[in-house]
Amino acid sequence: MTAATEPATATEPLVRAEGLTKRYQVRTPAGRRALTAVDRVDLTVGPGRIVAVVGESGCGKSTTGRLLLALERPTEGTVTVGGRDVNRLGKKELRLLRRDMQPVFQDPYDSLNGRMSVERILSEPARVHGVPLGGPGGARPVAELLDLVGLASSYAERHPHELSGGQRQRVAIARALALDPKFVVCDEAVSALDVSVQAQVVNLLSRLQRELGLAYLYISHDLALVRHLAHETAVMYLGRVVEQGPTKALFADPRHPYTQLLLAAVPRPRVRRDGGTEARRATVRAGELPSPLDRPPGCVFSTRCPLATDRCRTEEPALREVAGRRAACHYAETAEAVA
């Protein structure tokens, strides 16, 4: 797997989220209640950079991605792309902006229309946006897209059911690149694939990012993968970012107890007596993830944190600068390893 390399120069963020909040009204036996899926998230993605968002299922990662793609509107906060406030754009302006922002979803079996040939799938973005295939201002030709993702031109005649999982996801990636976007949201883009092909697809994504200068928001629960792929990492818990910063620094010296517990759960090889190796996995302990309908007062992680004090249970910690990154923990300066 190829490690992420830093872009040559620092520039203004391509995508910026400020105070991003999303609440849903849900029905419960006690009546309608507000569920906060994303809570005051600040996030930036610079041109040519890979920003990972990690955390357990239900932490708000995918909702954050959909908000950045303008597939959903935030309850509060703003999303700007190229300096433009997405929520203030009209339909025509938003349609033009969508050419610059594309998703790659988790399951290629669901994200591709099984009745379409690969050629039609890859030319569909051009038809939807009313642009020609090829030429200035047009979409990439189908043959070029297939070549970009390592598939022969003969695959254009096939249908999704004739492809393997890895090949389907390559087609999904090619479709995302059809309009030459600047920003791609990869939402668990390899988690539905066999382990044997995950590394191949990740290496493909990494190569395309470098060659095309793409910016990625990479949503994942696989910290081992994120460690090698991302320039920056944001750790989410119950809709909040609890730690955020350069990936190398965050992995080498995590300052939030939740980050420490997640890293302890990354499989580590153990040498057997016969000389072979086997994966050893620690588990994220300290209880179950609370319901977002019943968020704990104070620090959202206090009900599972081995280091929680009375202050943690009553006073919400701010996300603040600590040791070269930001962490939302009252005791981040003196954080002890809890793994």
If you had to describe this structure to a student in words, what would you say it looks like?
The protein has 339 residues and is α/β, with parallel strands linked by helices. The chain has a domain at 254-339. It is 28% helix and 25% strand. The strands form 3 sheets. The protein has an 8-stranded mixed sheet with strand order 6-7-8-3-9-10-14-13, sandwiched between helices. A 4-stranded antiparallel sheet has the order 2-1-4-5. It has a two-stranded antiparallel sheet with strand order 11-12. Helix 4 runs parallel beside helix 6 (165-177) and helix 6 packs parallel to helix 7. The longest helix is centred in the middle third of the chain and has 18 residues, at 195-212. The two termini are 26 Å apart. Mean pLDDT is 88; it is low at 276-283.
Outline of this structure?
By secondary structure, the protein is α/β, with parallel strands linked by helices. Helices cover 28% and strands 25% of the residues. The chain has helices at 61-68, 91-97, 108-111, 118-129, 142-148, 165-177, 195-212, 223-229, 247-252, 257-264, 310-314, and strands at residues 15-28, 31-45, 50-54, 76-81, 84-85, 101-104, 183-187, 215-220, 232-237, 240-246, 268-271, 277-280, 320-322, 325-327.
Instruction: Look at the helices and sheets and give the structural class.
Output: alpha/beta
Strand order of the largest sheet: 6-7-8-3-9-10-14-13
Helix content: 25-40%
Largest sheet properties: 8 strands, mixed
| H-E order | EEEHEEHEHHHHEHEHEEHHEEHEE
Give the C-alpha Rg.
21 Å
- Morphology: globular
Low-confidence regions = 276-283
Oligomeric state of the chains in view = single chain
Our count of helices gives 11
Proportion of residues in β-strands: 15-25%
